Amino acid sequence: MARKKAGKQKPESKIMYSLLFFGIIATLNILFIYVVLAATGFNQNSTTAQVYLDILTSLSFPLSVILYLLARGMSAKEMVAQIGLSKSGFNTKSLKYGIMLIGALLLFEFLVSAFSAATGISLPTNVSAVFCGAPLYLLTYAVIGAPISEEILFRGFMVPRLGIIASAVIFAVLHLSYLSVSEFAAAFIFGLLAGYVFRKARSIYPTIFAHMAINGISMVALVLSGGLCLP
After folding, report:
1. Structure pTM?
2. Cα(81)–Cα(37) distance, rounded to whole angstroms?
3. Element holding 54 (H helix, E strand)
4. Which residue range is the domain that position 226 belongs to?
């Protein structure tokens, strides 16, 4: 019986090493953002600084992924393929998966609303409070930029390494900043469905499309209902 090669890492060790390495890169990115804001004279507690911090933190997601993959010796072509952004993945099949994902998410929202109406249990969200008075460019970024950044990190990067459930949990934890159980649950369900679609389509184009659509629908619905106060 052949012996195992000495020094060969177990899969679990490789995952832990990768996560630690990625965590260091991501942390350095966040620290760099704070340093830049401080150096430019922004009051960290001001609304403008908080808006910039939110956008820059979101942009640090794909940047951290790119830096990590570069450090692992990947070429640009290999990175694009691994994240799920290859041209071959941008097709009608991806569009169909994206539409199916949107439909599933809207159905989930409908069922939650029906449950709340039938039981009298209030399931409020804090989206309107978070974005109330936010500048138009932040709302635009929330609909267009944030979905791209988040899908690159949570689906393109995390799903292949951590699995669908773990990536969905981490994605949901990120949304705890809304201080709402509803937002946490919705983010978790989205993470599960998007992870499954990413696996099936082998592309993040459908999840980006669905993410943009859901965020856009949510913003429009809040504006029309008067729940989102515009500046």
Report:
1. 0.82
2. 34
3. helix 47-71
4. 84-231
Of residues 112, 101, 109, the one with CA closest to residue 151: 101
Q: Confidence class of residue 52 from pLDDT cuts 50, 70 and 90?
A: confident
120 and 225 assigned to the same domain: yes
Same domain, 96 and 41: no
Q: Which two tokens stand for residue 51?
A: 């808006």
Is the residue at 110 inside a domain? yes
Say if 2 falls within a structural domain. Answer: no
Instruction: Write down the pLDDT at residue 220.
Output: 82
128 and 226 co-located in one domain: yes
**Whole-number Cα distances in Å, 166 to 87, 145, 191:** 27, 23, 9
Q: Residue written as tokens 């292949």?
A: 160
Summarize pLDDT for 82-127 with one digit per residue, the tens.
899 988 888 898 899 999 999 998 998 888 888 878 887 776 676 6
DSSP state of 44: T
Let me know whether 67 and 131 are in one domain: no
Of 161, 145, 144, nearest to 198 (Cα)?
Answer: 161
| Long-range contacts from 11-17, C-beta under 8 angstroms, 24+ separation | 15/161, 15/162
- Domain for residue 79, yes or no? no
Average pLDDT over residues 68-87: 88
**Cβ atoms 143, 219 nearer than 8 A:** yes
